[in-house]
Amino acid sequence: SQTIHQWPATLVQPVGSPLSLECTVEGTSNPNLYWYRQAAGRGLQLLFYSVGIGQISSEVPQNLSASRPQDRQFILSSKKLLLSDSGFYLCAWSVSQFGQYFGPGTRLLVL
Amino acid sequence: RKEVEQDPGPFNVPEGATVAFNCTYSNSASQSFFWYRQDCRKEPKLLMSVYSSGNEDGRFTAQLNRASQYISLLIRDSKLSDSATYLCVVRGSNYQLIWGAGTKLIIKP
Predict the structure, then answer these.
(1) Partner-chain contact A105 B45, CB within 8 Å
(2) What's CA A27's distance to the chain center, in Å?
């Protein structure tokens, strides 16, 4: 069966510090991968998606970036965090036209 | 107009009652529809896909009305464990998922 891992579960970072969140998927090949952010009490905002290694599409302009160095690895990064980057970051995978399946998420607080 | 709209709630419902969620979407070309459930401070989990003919899974029934661009979810005999936020999701023409903001459900004993 497929599983998706995200770490860390929670993170508190100062403004201006770098960020690296990692997501890995097991049990499937060539998945579509996604990074979402959910602000408190709000809906999901798609940040990036990837259909293959090295292929990244960005949905919103921001100071975040994403990379996919391996088929089942998706990384979200920032060189300098802003206060507005605080939120719940979720990685998800999908295959074909079916729904998306989420990892447990990383709760980020930027102070 | 938002691409996917839901009543934010919360819906406060006694245990055992029937609950109905409604959702409207703006893109008539949408092809796939889903309901997700999200518990507090947890990730969303796929509850069920919504098929054109309607579909049922135990106490849950989902229906689609393409003419009105409307999706519904019915929960019968609600349980305390049904308390969560229910997210309506539509696959857009670019194959990405468009998420509603969710409807919060609180089941009371």
Answers:
(1) no
(2) 19
